Amino acid sequence: MKTSGKKGLGIIGRVVIALLALGYAYILLRGLIDNPVLFLQQVINGFQLGFVYALIALGYTMVYGIVRLINFAHGDVFMVGAFVSYFAVSYYGVTRLKVLEVFGSTLGPVVGTGLVILMAMAVCSAMAVTIERVAYKPLRNAPRISALITAIAVSFFLEYFASLDFVFTSNFIIYERPFDLIVWSPIPGVTISNIMVIIVVASILFLLFLQYIVHRTKMGKAMRACSYDKPTARLMGIDVDQVISFTFALGAALAGAGGVLYAIAYPQLIVFMGIMPGLKAFVAAVLGGIGNIPGAFVGSLIMGQAEVLSAGYISTTMRDAIAFTILIIVLIVKPTGLFGEPEGQKV
Amino acid sequence: MKGRFLGQPWTFWAIVVVIFAVVQVIFLRDLVTDYIQTVIQYACVMAIVALGLNLIYGFTGQFSLGQWGFYAIGAYASAEITYTYAGRFSRPIDLGFTTIDLGSTAVFLFAILFGACLSAAISFLFGLPVLKMGGDYFGIATLGFTMVVKVLADNSDKLFFEEMKGSRGMVGIPQLTTWLWAFLFLVLALVVMRNLIYSTTGRAMVSVREDEIAAKAMGIDTVRYKTLAFVIGSFYAGLAGGLYAHLYAFLHPSTFHFVKSFDIWIIVVFGGVGSITGTLIATFGWAALLEGLRIFLPSGTETWRFVIYPVLLLLVMLLRPQGLFGGMELGFLKPPRWPRRQKSAATEN
Fold first, then answer.
1. Using alpha carbons only, how large is chain A's radius of gyration in Å?
2. Do A13 and B128 touch (CB under 8 A)?
3. Contacts with B, A 66-95, CB within 8 Å
4. For labelling, which of A228, A249, A316, B213 has a CA lying 20 to 30 Å from the CA of B241?
5. Nearest by CB to B141, which of A9, A320, A328?
């Protein structure tokens, strides 16, 4: 039995992966050549999905960077964001408030949506901080596996609790879009919708906002310090507990916003909707280098493209398998991801 | 003391035979409903899967989310074989109180062993590159594996065999799992696991869990033992999958979604990480709880089970993370008492 501890694979493994990658590239290239306009449309759709994944992936990567925990419940925070927006829009009619008519009939609902996003962010942050205090904080010094199992347990609890009849029920819920879908066709065969534009713009704004917080505020500095070395950060006078809660809150806020945008783009909700996007965003975060914020963003865009192009050119039913195969290959070839740094082991 | 078989004294095997006979008679006389009979056998199947997971996670400390994927592989592979061949070799013999069919039983045994070996082989290949990664990454990779297996099951009619019928579910599997096989394989699994744990191999695996770097420093080839644990655990999962397929005679890909593997995690964590007794008791406790809740909870509130499970798991993780029997064993599963040392080696004959 081969027992060496060499990094990566032997020659056979490398050949297999190279062949898979080449095959994949070939299929895509053929698609591009056959019908470049369709390919462009797929790429645009992929960006829409990729940006939503980015909002979720950022939360995963920030939390991992600071507490080395894969927060499996993050996908469910995303789901809650979507449901909050559903209740805000359909039950409480936030986007149809009188006060918004100041902005006119087209811009009013958009501003209302902005309000809904803020509401979702607030609710999701509060929820994440509660989860952190109740479930993760007591296990901060436990082996990481315990925290992982707890995260999975929290995720299940959120999903099934929400699926109870007096909460969100386990049915599919049709979401009523707060504003109408408008499509343009700048090039024949390519459609862009206002929702797509809003998603891309909002995601970029959130990313810039996050970069600002992480690199230009004191709290951001504290976050970065904690991600390097928590005990030393504590010695420097940083309240590590507060920083951790803040990180969870920030990540959840982004995921909540992502939930709202996702619901607007794909207007069908169900309590289990967070599982797959959560997992895929997680793959994206790993792809970019878990713990690395720009990496998570790039990884998400790549995942969005991979998913849409695989669905289009290979098979819709296999697209999840392809996403996870990408994950496995990335983990085998470069576990630290595109931008990650390897973590040394302390003896 | 008379001889030992597979490391256990004849008294142990006598008890095993008695338990088997008692339950078999209960079944044959229909003293319990068919449904309960199936549940008991299902509990045996789940116990085997849980034992495999306990070996990988409880004893060797590798966080593998892939157990369910190997369960699926064992199930589908064995089902395909019996589906195709059991009919051809079937030769029923009527014994009065029951009918036995040596031909199809032989195919069945071959099929489940094949399924188990296939799972083991795939886990070996998958483990080669993946086991070298740290705990978190290994968990993620195995999660990806389980997801991929589920999607492959959904597409099994296009990718593998027509009769697997993809997401419509595979039917027509001969219902060949009986109390005899479920119990026999469970007992064998238990005995083998126990013997493994109390051997040098088992001690090496535990050392990997305790402190991998120290183990390496002591000259233990951690990759080898991690791989061994992973392969054996997957073998168990594949075996159990085969038994499962022939118990309910129906396979649907939704059974093999990763989220459904939560049950065995509860069993392993709750019963006691690194405790064979704990896993065994927890499995039957879980089966009892499942059925008990089904009876006691008014209909329509069955989803509350899935709300209660994670809360229970959470409580266990927070209050007693090593589980009920963490590190403890009972009965024949207790560590063997080694004979006393002789005064000097020279006096040994």
1. 21
2. yes
3. 68, 70
4. A316
5. A328
- B147 vs A138, A324, A343: nearest CB: A324
The per-residue pLDDT string of chain A (347 residues; one tens digit each, 9 = 90 and over) reads: 444 444 455 777 778 888 888 888 888 888 888 888 888 888 888 988 899 999 999 988 899 888 888 888 999 999 999 988 888 887 777 767 767 677 776 677 777 888 889 999 999 999 999 999 998 998 888 777 788 888 888 998 888 888 877 777 777 878 777 777 778 777 777 888 888 888 888 888 988 899 899 889 999 999 989 888 888 999 999 999 999 999 999 999 999 999 999 888 888 888 888 888 888 898 899 888 888 888 889 999 999 988 888 888 877 878 888 888 888 888 888 878 888 766 655 55
What type of residue sits at position A102? Answer: V
Burial (CB count within 10 angstroms: exposed 0-12, middle 13-18, buried 19+), residue A216: exposed
Q: Render the burial of A113-127: b for 16+ CB within 10 Å, e for the rest.
A: bebbbebbbebbbeb
Q: Is the alpha carbon torsion for A192, A198, A204, A207 positive or negative?
A: negative
B9 strand-pairing partners = B4
One-letter amino acid for residue A95 of the chain: T
Kindly compute the dihedral angle of the four CA atoms of residues A172, A177, A182, A183, in this order, to the nearest 10 degrees: -20
- Tokens 């697997």 belong to which residue? B164
SS3 A266: coil
Cα torsion through B149, B155, B156, B162, rounded to 10: 180
pTM for the model stands at: 0.84
Evaluate whether A285 touches A72 at the Cβ level (below 8 Å): no
User: Crossing angle, helix A104-131 and helix A74-86, to 10 degrees?
Assistant: 140
Strand segments (E) across A125-236:
173-174, 183-187, 190-193
In Å, how far are A51, A212, A279 from A58, measured between CA atoms? 11, 14, 13
**CB distance B175 to B104 below 8 Å:** no
SS3 of residue B178 by DSSP: coil
C-alpha distance from B227 to closest chain A C-alpha (Å): 9
Q: Testing the interface with A: which of B62, B68, B136, B224 to mutate, by most A Cβ within 10 A?
A: B136
Give the angle subtended at the CA of B56 by the CAs of B236 and A69, to the nearest 5°.
135
Looking at domain A38-333, its CATH class is mainly alpha
Phi and psi at residue B93, to the nearest 5°: -125, 125
Cβ within 8 Å, pair A282-B259 = no
Residue of A nearest to B258 (CA): A275
The A residues from 152 to 191 touching B (CB cutoff 8 Å) are 152-157, 160-161, 163-165, 170
User: What count of other Cβ atoms lies within 10 Å of the Cβ of residue A201?
Assistant: 11
Torsion of CA A14, A15, A21, A22, to 10 degrees: 150
A61 to chain B, closest Cα gap in Å: 14
Asked if A324 has any chain B CB less than 8 Å from its own CB, the reply is yes
- The CA-atom distances, in angstroms, between B42 and each of A78, A342, B240 are 36, 44, 9
Residue found by looking up tokens 């054996």 in the block = B232
Which residues does B315 contact at the CB level (< 8 Å), separation at least 6?
none
Is B329 in a helix, a strand, or coil?
coil
* Domain coordinates in residue numbering, chain A: 38-333
The distance of Cα B168 from the centroid of its chain, to the nearest Å, equals: 26
What count of CB pairs under 8 Å joins A to B?
128
Predicted confidence band at B166 (pLDDT cuts at 50, 70, 90)? confident
Gap from A153 CA to chain B (nearest CA, Å): 5
Minimal CA separation from B213 to chain A, in Å: 7
Residue ranges covered by each domain of chain B: 33-257
CB-neighbour burial class of residue B21 (10 A; exposed 0-12, middle 13-18, buried 19+): exposed
